Fold:
Amino acid sequence: MRTDTQPTIATSTPSPSTHPRSSRSWFWPGIGVATLGLVAGLALGITSYLGSQQEIDGFARTSVPGSVSMQVDELGPQVVYFEGDESVIDNLVVAVADSNGTAVAVEPYEAELIYETTDLTLGRAIASFDAEQTGAFDVEVSGTDSGQFTVGESVARLALPGVLAGLALAGLSVVAGFSLWLYSILRR
Structure:
């Protein structure tokens, strides 16, 4: 009997079913979720913003001094904007009358609300009034001989909901995609 023999060491390769390859399967779906959500969120936000720009371009506008008649189809606040040299804003006088000719209370716009049209004209909110009935409203602005004014809904109400929804969708999809990607790493 021989005592100088080397012990035999058995080696084997792991079977494919025990290899942690399946954890990589979450990597590409994570990237896909993040990418698709980011693109969809940005598309929603940009579409909403561009839609609000079209609404702004469609506002009734006229030169100052002047008056414009506007149709209000939904009750609620309406905003008067001035497009021109902001140094004359304090001199402007705004008067509003409903379809019966009754004066409507006008409040100065205290917050700063600025928009930019597609032709790069800046508009600043100068006053607001509450349309308590639907129909025609006559809006008159005087106090300077320059610039123009426009009347319509708050531009913040036009653009903000869609832009925020788009940003939320983009952000949540990036978080979901990152979570799937992280899951694939931690499973290794």
